[in-house]
Structure prediction request, 128 residues.
Amino acid sequence: MSDTEKLTINLGYVDLGRIDLLVQEGFYSNRSDFIRTAIRNQLSTEGEAVRQSVVRQTLELGLRDYDRAELEAVKAAGEKLQIKVVGLVRIASDVTPELALATIASITVLGALQAGRDVKSALADRIL
Prediction:
């Protein structure tokens, strides 16, 4: 699985032309390089607002992996997880739909969720 997500955006012709001009002049290697740089710059500008929201909403930031052993331990403790992540959540391929249902109460992911189709399907009503 990739650690990037593909996005599709619509731009006006003038904006697109301005990006192409900057690429042509060598400021950026291609359109994607320009867009990634612009997004990083904007996220840096809004960094404090993001940090405050993460704290206020008690979210984890970054990559969070869940494997069978961790979920089996949660199940043995009689607990259920409320997963809240800004970034990427990966549920390992060795996690069965039954184990996921028994241990995950809810999933909120601002970013991407990577899990098997059967696990995603089983958790569909718990993915917020």
